[in-house]
Amino acid sequence: MDPTSFVKFLHDRVKINGKTGQLGEKVEILREKNKVVIVAEAPFSKRYLKYLTKKYLKKQQLRDWLRVVNSGKDSYELRYFNISEENEEDEDDEE
Question: Which residues have C-beta within 8 Å of that of residue 36, sequence separation ≥ 6?
Fold first, then answer.
């Protein structure tokens, strides 16, 4: 996953006052190595960010492999699904 394309996706899709692509000085989207930071003066819903992240993952066909997890009061992180645990459960059911 390329953080630069994710930043561009957010910049194009984030709505401020019902309009997309017009962030102005109210919302700033920054990339710091492998992190994307959003600084907002205007009211900005954390749930809306999660919705846009899921939409991006679906567009990139990564939704089946990554999930969006709450990692703090004001942050999210992407984690891989733990497939090995699911495989072990399936094997136990077959016995």
Answer: 3, 6, 7, 10, 29, 30
Q: pTM of the entire structure?
A: 0.75
Q: What is the pLDDT of residues 6-38, one digit of tens each?
A: 889 988 988 888 888 788 788 888 898 888 888
Closest CA to 70 of 41, 40, 49, 39: 49
DSSP string, 28-85: EEEEETTEEEEEESS---HHHHHHHHHHHHHHTT-TTTEEEEEEETTEEEEEE--HHH
> In this predicted model, what pLDDT tens digit does every residue of 76-91 receive, in sequence order?
888 888 766 655 555 5
Q: In this structure, what token pair is assigned to residue 93?
A: 């059911």
